[in-house]
Amino acid sequence: MYEFKDGLDHAQYLDSKDPLGAFRKRFYLREDTVYLCGNSLGLASKDAENSLFNVLDEWKYEGVQLWSQNNNKFLKYSAYLAKLMAPLVGADAKEIALSGSTTVSIHQCISTFYKPREDRYKILVDDVNFSSDRYAVDSQVRLKGYDPAEAVKVVKCRGRFMSEDDVISAMTPEVALVLLPVVYYRSAQILDVKRVTDAAKSRGIFIGWDMCHAAGVIDFDLRYLDVDFAVWCTYKYLNGGPGAPSALYINKKHFHLTPGMCGWFGNRVETQFKLNQEFDHKKDANGWQIGTPHLLSMGPLEGSLKMFLEAGMTNVRLKSLKITAYLMYLSDLRLSYYGFDIGNPREDDRRGGHVCLRHREAYRISIALKNMGVVQDFRPPNVIRITPAALYTSYEEVYRVVEMILLIVKNETYKSISTRRSVVV
Ligand SMILES: Cc1ncc(COP(=O)(O)O)c(C=O)c1O
Predict the structure, then answer these.
(1) What is the spatial distance between Cα 221 and Cα 357, in angstroms, rounded to a whole number?
(2) Do 280 and 354 fall within a single domain?
(3) What is the mean pLDDT of the chain?
């Protein structure tokens, strides 16, 4: 499907034909660095910086009056940002709130949807999702008086990838709720969200999805998927900055539910400042907000989301697929001889935005690469995650990084690096 050739001139040719190539100059890229870690923290852009400065200016000039400026823009900043987010995930703006961290949003959603009964009290998860999701699930189960060892049902990943069949066969009558990732953070596998969601719904089970590694890299249609709830962070592919708020999606058919965790920003704006003792739930996703919006963490997201709208999510996905395919092509061609293989699914519809280069010395090679100015990360036991980002990575950078990896393995420079891992890699 993709036709690639080896050589720097071909990389430069691909860049010259890249319809998103012009976005690159709007990012803060360092001359001495190739940044391939947007699956962890996306890069800062001038657009994000400007929208953050705008929030700061309002605070400097208006003080507390900033909340009511521009038709209460900042009081309703979550709803404002939701309008920008909605087209990227195929949802209605009212179904999205921007608030808290992903983990807090998971707590919020589970505490809303998890209503255990004697015969239906289990939460279904898998054993390769991101740790924080599991911690949240276990603690929500404990809060309801159950023992996670009994009430959390874990589907095991039996091979390299999670089997949808295994997930569906675990949806037994005592399961009340399912929480799964759309894209696995380690393997980049995309689950068949539609199939798994439909299976849950046909069994009367609520289902929610962690879209952290999907939002901003996969073009989504939440309306079509019709999931019950979803959460995702905005600091990875969406470049919202460290500490940017998470997004929480509540399917509009559930707006009547009372949030598990209520707070005054989930109250209707019309009565919020009456400060009544009774919660007057805003009947859309913004009714799932809890406290005062973190404006300084939300500011950069405004500029960044506008950039995604300008680029178009379909184009972002197309570029991501093509540039990751290019990396896999170069790896097959030039790195496989040195013990590398591809750890993610190869089919376009089954892989997210990062490439998993597997090698038995992945940790030390990852450090050696970092020492050469290539920012990527290592995930145990043997994966180097490399994320060429659609809006700011060039094909030439990918080509040069493969050259650097070759140097590291040919010269065995990684061998001088300790095998002891630091706390964050
Ligand atoms: C898949 C996934 N879920 C949840 C989280 C936790 O997100 P947060 O720190 O925003 O709570 C992460 C963080 O990287 C993640 O990758």
Answers:
(1) 29
(2) no
(3) 97
Which atom from ligand 1 is nearest to the alpha carbon of 105? 11
135 CB near ligand 1 (under 6 Å): no
Atom of ligand 1 nearest to the CA of 181: 1
* CA 1 – CA 12 distance, rounded (Å): 20
Closest C-alpha to 190, from 166, 172, 217: 217
Map tokens 């719904």 to a residue: 201
Can you give the pLDDT at residue 391?
98
Give the residue numbers spanning the domain of 166.
49-310
Asked whether residue 108 falls in the same domain as residue 241, the answer is yes
Whether ligand 1 lies within 6 angstroms of the CB of 212 is answered as yes
pLDDT tens sequence across 163-194? 999 999 999 999 999 999 999 999 999 999 99
Mean pLDDT of 22-31: 98
CATH, residue 356: 3.90.1150.10
**Is ligand 1 within 6 A of the CB of residue 47?**
no
How far separated are the first and last CA of the chain, in Å rounded?
34
Q: Is 103 in the pocket of ligand 1 (CB under 6 A)?
A: yes
Bridge-based pairing of strands 229-232 and 247-250 is antiparallel
